[in-house]
Hints:
With 111 residues, the protein is α+β, with helices and mostly antiparallel strands. The protein has helices spanning 3-23, 74-81, and strands at residues 32-38, 43-50, 84-90, 94-102. Strand 3 (84-90) and strand 4 (94-102) form a beta hairpin.
Amino acid sequence: MSPGVTERAEQIVVELAANAALHGRVHSRDFRLGLTFDPAAGLLRITVTDARGECLPSPPAECETPLDAESGRGLFLVAALADRWGVEPYPPGGKTVRADCDCEGPNPSAS
């Protein structure tokens, strides 16, 4: 995996985990972080599942965070860094936010 993909993934993990800790926490229930790398598909998938399914993230285009605010731009960063991202229900009452990073395939000239 290239350093660029690794750096993007690190920042996405930080943003999604921070959002889950701040906005998705329910007493005595934490969030779950998943990283899945599929080399055949050239895909790194980051998932963060929390217990607050009713608290869905707003699409970055709909968020009106003031320019001088100290927070509120996490999903802007996720949308900019990930090749795709989305939210799915996690029954019975949670949600999973996922972000996909396409990875470069093997270098054909290296053979």
